[in-house]
């Protein structure tokens, strides 16, 4: 995909011209200077809606100077070398205390002047009286102040049970110009619309690294997101959509707070997400909260118990934009962050011994949530144009690869560690790149890794291994490394072993020795992070405190971390196939639901139980779950064609049973996960059980380019809670700048299980807001 650094000047000019021409097409489309129909007529798009493979246009067209593709220009590094800057720790946000008002609302501290968060959206008041300026978007004077749809369907489910105790206020906006370069302080400053990132509070400056929120079981959270992006869609520096919905991947939340229910909101509005911190199976298991293992840490050294199954405790999670059809572009611009959940067993205090705490490496200065020795690592890649501005190629529907390796959005940084045990939480936040990470000492020998969690779920027993498994986009691997055998001054590299040629799949897996040398045709192969053994570091938990190599390491890695959830006979089975076998029917006669870009074609489809294939439509239900608590067995299948797909299921984790019909490896076998890499023409079977909340969720490929083009399907969960709107199929929200209106969804025949009757009258009764 990327040309070699030693390519001739004319070859580099050819590649740059093709990139410039693609960018010019996008600008013309964004500004309404040309239509997709005209581009088809001129031969710039094919009859299928794809970019024509022509020299001077496509990076995959034959070069005029060699019998190889034109390729893409490499990112200029302006003389910057690897390991010349420290790794940024994530931006830890501090929670705000919430209080209950007489009306039952959740109030932020009075000094902030914020409206309270409510069970019902402020859109409800706007719909009742659209002329009341108290509830009108203060930036555009069109539509409601809150983007969450009105009425009971999008009210926060089980509000009183999970009343918010902690709050966060964030704004999504243009990157601050004084915050340094995108991935290195010596790199050119980014245009404000190259990066869209978060700030804490209304007045803060948006910038990188991404945020970190520490949550704990039993302390529900309300997170208010203000959209402060430009109102003009064309002001995006070539890619990205100025509308957002924040998906908390993969928390146990109601659909109204999942951030992927077709509820994006517009500049000038806010959206209140209530993150329940609910433990799954609270309605079925440990309902009286008598098991101390099902618990969260209090403000001292104790615990408060919660209902639910301690075997389903979650830990390492993240949040990212999920605006349908524009997820890849928006996340790539910086719209993401990490969220760590803490519990009685996984407390984040390595010295506290109470019979429940596992005492994993973390630190001891705080009662819970220590991160001195518990480190979030967000691995990603990016590409920039000749001027150093972030670049995204929206025409490549197979996947977007960068040529610059990033850790916590810094270019190949270094990180200082003491000679003791550390826990690392590794997230693959690339758009289309698979990773395989290993550690190498100065002699090139592998440094052993102890694998403890997969997608935020503790494994039953720690697994010793020489390197991590291949990691798909969205997957999280927690592992422990013991540096006590190294001496001060030693350096260890974190190395990516796998090579890509394009965004379809990984091409080749290298040995550690070969990966250390790198390869000229994929610059992200090789070392991505350098770990430096030092004698002292400053605490991030309590700044000013110096931590030293002579301090005793009292952390532990117990032989057993949790208990196994058994596999049982399912109520039903389902087959979900991902591929390119359908017609790509997202675009109907009236456009897309929701609206999409003019340049979009839809090659990716999903097929359920062998029926017709479909690409994403938010008003179409592909999988309906009729009753909370029923156990199902699902098989995800790759339809073939030379692609790989990491598939993500929202809201619940599944217990991995089979890979390609066989027992999977130890890091997957009977482990709980929410993203499964399928492999080329492969399959994965898992056990799933939904419960507690209901509404509209999704199931999709986490190669977010595949997701945007449009390998994504709607899943409808029915809670069975009497009187709840989610006990029936919920209507589809359709956001507009003037407010949300609802439509009745289509339920595909394969979506409804045998014996279930479609009650469209129930759906129709919930259509509460008229079309603006």
From TrEMBL:
<feature type="region of interest" description="Disordered">
    <location>
        <begin position="725"/>
        <end position="756"/>
    </location>
</feature>
<dbReference type="Pfam" id="PF07731">
    <property type="entry name" value="Cu-oxidase_2"/>
</dbReference>
<dbReference type="InterPro" id="IPR008972">
    <property type="entry name" value="Cupredoxin"/>
</dbReference>
<dbReference type="GO" id="GO:0005507">
    <property type="term" value="F:copper ion binding"/>
</dbReference>
<dbReference type="InterPro" id="IPR011706">
    <property type="entry name" value="Cu-oxidase_C"/>
</dbReference>
<feature type="domain" description="Plastocyanin-like">
    <location>
        <begin position="609"/>
        <end position="715"/>
    </location>
</feature>
<dbReference type="InterPro" id="IPR045087">
    <property type="entry name" value="Cu-oxidase_fam"/>
</dbReference>
<dbReference type="GO" id="GO:0016491">
    <property type="term" value="F:oxidoreductase activity"/>
</dbReference>
<protein>
    <submittedName>
        <fullName>Bilirubin oxidase</fullName>
    </submittedName>
</protein>
């Amino acid at each position: 995909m990327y040309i070699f650094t030693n390519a001739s000047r004319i070859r580099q000019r050819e590649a740059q011209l093709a990139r410039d021409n693609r960018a010019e097409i996008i600008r013309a489309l964004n500004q309404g200077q040309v239509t997709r129909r005209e581009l088809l007529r001129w031969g710039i798009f094919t009859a299928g809606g794809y970019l024509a493979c022509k020299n001077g246009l496509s990076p995959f067209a034959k070069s005029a100077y060699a019998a190889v593709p034109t390729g893409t220009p490499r990112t200029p590094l302006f003389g910057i070398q690897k390991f010349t800057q420290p790794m940024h720790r994530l931006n830890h946000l501090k929670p705000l205390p919430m209080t209950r008002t007489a009306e039952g609302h959740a109030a932020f501290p009075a000094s902030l002047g914020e409206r309270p968060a409510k069970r019902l959206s402020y859109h409800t008041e706007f719909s009742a009286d659209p002329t009341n300026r108290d509830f009108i978007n203060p930036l555009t004077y069109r539509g409601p102040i809150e983007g969450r749809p009105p009425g009971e369907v999008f009210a926060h489910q089980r509000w009183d049970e999970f009343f918010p105790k902690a709050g966060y206020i964030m704004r999504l906006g243009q990157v601050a110009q004084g915050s340094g370069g995108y991935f290195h302080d010596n790199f050119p400053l980014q245009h404000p619309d190259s990066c869209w990132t978060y700030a804490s509070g209304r007045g803060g400056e948006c910038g990188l690294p991404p945020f970190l929120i520490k949550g704990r079981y039993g302390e529900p959270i309300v997170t208010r997101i203000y959209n402060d992006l430009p109102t003009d869609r064309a002001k995006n520096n070539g890619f990205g959509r100025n509308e957002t919905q924040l998906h908390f991947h993969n928390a146990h939340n109601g659909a109204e707070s999942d951030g992927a229910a077709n509820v994006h909101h517009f500049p000038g509005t806010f959206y209140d997400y209530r993150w329940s911190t609910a433990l799954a199976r609270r309605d079925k298991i440990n309902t009286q909260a008598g098991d101390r293992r099902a618990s969260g840490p209090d403000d001292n050294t104790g615990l408060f118990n919660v209902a639910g199954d301690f075997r389903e405790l979650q830990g390492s999670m993240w949040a990212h934009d999920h605006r349908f059809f524009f997820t890849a572009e928006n996340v790539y611009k910086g719209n993401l962050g990490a969220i760590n959940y803490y519990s009685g067993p996984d407390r984040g205090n390595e010295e506290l011994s109470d019979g429940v705490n596992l005492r994993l490496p973390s630190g001891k200065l705080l009662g819970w949530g220590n991160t001195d020795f518990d480190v979030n690592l967000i691995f990603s890649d990016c590409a920039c144009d000749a001027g150093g501005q972030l670049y995204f190629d929206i025409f490549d529907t197979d996947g977007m690869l960068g040529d610059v390796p990033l850790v916590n959005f810094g270019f190949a940084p270094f990180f200082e560690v003491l000679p003791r045990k550390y826990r690392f939480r590794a997230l693959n936040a690339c758009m289309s790149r698979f990773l395989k990470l290993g550690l190498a000492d100065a002699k090139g020998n592998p440094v052993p890794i102890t694998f403890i969690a997969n997608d935020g779920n503790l494994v039953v027993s720690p697994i010793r291994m020489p390197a991590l498994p291949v990691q798909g986009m969205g997957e999280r691997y927690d592992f422990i490394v013991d540096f006590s055998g190294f001496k001060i001054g030693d350096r260890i590299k974190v190395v990516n072993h796998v090579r890509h040629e394009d965004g379809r799949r990984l091409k080749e897996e290298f040995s550690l020795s070969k990966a250390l040398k790198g390869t000229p045709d994929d610059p992200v192969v090789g070392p991505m992070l350098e770990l430096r053994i030092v004698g002292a570091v400053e605490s991030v938990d309590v700044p000013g405190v110096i931590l030293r190599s002579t301090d005793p390491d009292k952390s532990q890695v117990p032989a057993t971390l949790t208990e196994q959830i058994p596999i049982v006979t399912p109520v039903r089975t389902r087959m979900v196939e991902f591929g390119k076998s359908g017609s790509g029917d997202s675009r109907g006669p009236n456009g897309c639901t929701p609206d999409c870009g003019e340049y979009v074609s839809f090659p990716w489809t999903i097929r359920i139980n062998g029926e017709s294939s479909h690409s994403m439509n938010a008003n179409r239900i592909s999988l309906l779950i009729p009753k909370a608590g029923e156990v199902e067995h699902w098989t995800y299948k790759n339809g073939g064609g030379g692609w790989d797909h990491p598939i993500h299921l929202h809201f619940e984790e599944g217990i991995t049973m089979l890979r390609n019909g066989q027992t999977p490896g130890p890091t997957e076998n009977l482990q709980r996960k929410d993203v499964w890499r399928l492999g080329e023409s492969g399959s994965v079977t898992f056990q799933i059980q939904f419960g507690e909340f209901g509404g509209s969720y999704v199931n999709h490929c986490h190669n977010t380019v595949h997701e945007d083009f449009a390998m994504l399907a709607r899943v409808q969960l029915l809670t069975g809670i009497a009187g709840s709107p989610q006990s029936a199929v919920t209507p589809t929200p359709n956001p507009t700048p003037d407010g949300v209106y609802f439509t009745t969804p289509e339920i595909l025949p394969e979506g409804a299980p045998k014996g279930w009757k479609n009650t469209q009258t129930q759906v129709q009764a919930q259509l509460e807001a008229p079309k603006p």
